[in-house]
Amino acid sequence: MAPKRTVTTQTIWYVASMLLTFLGFRFVLALLGANPVNPVAGSIYGVSGPFAVPLSGLFGYHLAYGTSQLDVVTLIAIATYAGAAGALHATCQSYTRIGPPRRFLPHFANSRYPHLSTLIDVNFFGESKEGDV
Fold it and tell me: What is the SS3 string spanning the chain?
């Protein structure tokens, strides 16, 4: 059975897919040698630039706009952000599987041993229920 997709995980993948799409366009434009003076190429370089800059000093070369060049930094940025989105998604999924903390004693007494529910008449904090002495 596939886990339920929550609004949080949908939001994570929506933001990640938008970011990865812009980084993919950036990679293709750099590979084809797109001129950054062009409004479309310039806007894609401008939007995706802040996300590729943290990894720009990794290999010691700078992207020369207007010439065809394999932009390895953008490929690494795509892999990094996809991995981060996957890890965040897995964290959210594990929380939704576990769920918030539950009261153990009343659930234990009522589900496995129904005859103990009359003996164990105490809530989670050790207080008696209403009507008890």
Answer: CCCCCCHHHHHHHHHHHHHHHHHHHHHHHHHHCCCCCCHHHHHHHHHHHHHHHHHCCCCCCCCCCCCCCCCHHHHHHHHHHHHHHHHHHHHHHHHHHHCCCCCHHHHHHHHCCHHHCCCCCECCCCCECCCCC
